[in-house]
Design goal:
Helices cover about 35% and strands about 10% of the residues. A four-stranded antiparallel β-sheet has the order 1-2-3-4. The protein has two domains: about 160 residues, Ubiquitin Conjugating Enzyme (Roll), CATH 3.10.110.10; about 60 residues, no CATH class. By secondary structure, it is an alpha+beta fold. The chain contains seven helices and four strands. Helix 3 crosses helix 4. One of its GO terms (molecular function) is transferase activity. Belongs to the ubiquitin-conjugating enzyme family. Keywords: ATP-binding, Nucleotide-binding, Transferase, Ubl conjugation pathway.
């Protein structure tokens, strides 16, 4: 169903982005002129970062409830970054999280945010990665424990996937135990390993690079309700405790 108010705002936002591209460095274009709710955002990697010179594309899906509900932003371009999944492109960024009772952060989505402000925030995330609030556990561990190797890996991926010019040689070959592993097909996992927990709730941590059994053990340790196997919104405090335990900090 058409949403005139949403579409009017989107058109205005896109027009402003076009006019300000030279200054802002970000742009968003409509994928199909018959559907304003599907956009692609583009920006170049910030200077003085491993991503410099690369071009990054973000998929943007705008919901019917926009601007009161946040769009879904997913990185199309493969990137080696602790706050963006190297497997799925999911982005860990407070301002695109829905603002509901289960979310304690004051920086969650607000109707005053725009496509432009989010794209600028994602670009800034490339300048200031935060391994302590990860979306990809493997990358976050490397960023914290081996920052120089992380920098080389991030630059190598920028060259291979984002078209950045190579400024440094490729990183040395990784030992097999820390090399990025191909994503597992979740549908092939034995359902018994979830021990009654909702698959999607467990998989959101698995997609960050953690093993299913370790995630389920953390759920059990903190006594999370199985809720009959149905999905429910996990409180942010629980999510933080689970990540800390998966990192061996709790």
């Amino acid at each position: 169903m058409a949403n005139p108010a949403r579409n009017t705002r989107l058109k205005k936002e896109i027009d402003i982005l076009k006019e300000d591209t030279d200054n802002s460095g970000v742009v968003a274009v409509i994928v199909d002129e018959s559907d304003m709710t599907h956009l692609k955002g583009l920006f170049t990697g910030p200077p003085d970062t491993p991503y410099a010179g690369g071009t990054y594309q973000v998929d943007i899906q705008v919901p019917a409830g926009y601007p009161f509900q946040p769009p879904k932003f997913t990185m199309d371009t493969k990137i080696w970054h602790p706050n963006i999944s190297s497997k799925t492109g999911m982005i860990c960024l407070d301002i695109i999280r829905p603002n509901d009772k289960s979310t304690s952060s004051a920086n969650t989505w607000s109707p005053v945010n725009t496509i432009k402000t989010v794209l600028l925030s994602i670009r800034m995330l490339l300048e200031l990665p935060n391994p302590d609030d990860p979306q990809d556990a493997v990358v976050a561990t490397m960023a914290r424990d081996e920052p120089e190797y992380f920098r080389l890996m991030a630059h190598d991926w920028a060259v291979r996937y984002a078209g950045a010019p190579r400024r440094e040689p490729p990183p040395p070959e990784q030992p097999s135990e820390r090399a990025p592993q191909p994503p597992k097909k979740m549908d092939e996992v034995d359902p018994a390993r979830y021990k009654g927990y909702n698959k999607a709730m467990v998989d959101q941590f698995v997609e960050m690079g953690f093993d299913i059994d370790r995630v389920v053990e953390a759920f059990l340790h903190f006594g999370l309700d199985r809720n009959g196997g149905y999905h429910y919104q996990m409180e942010e405090a629980y999510a933080g405790d689970i990540i800390s335990r998966l990192y061996g900090e709790a």
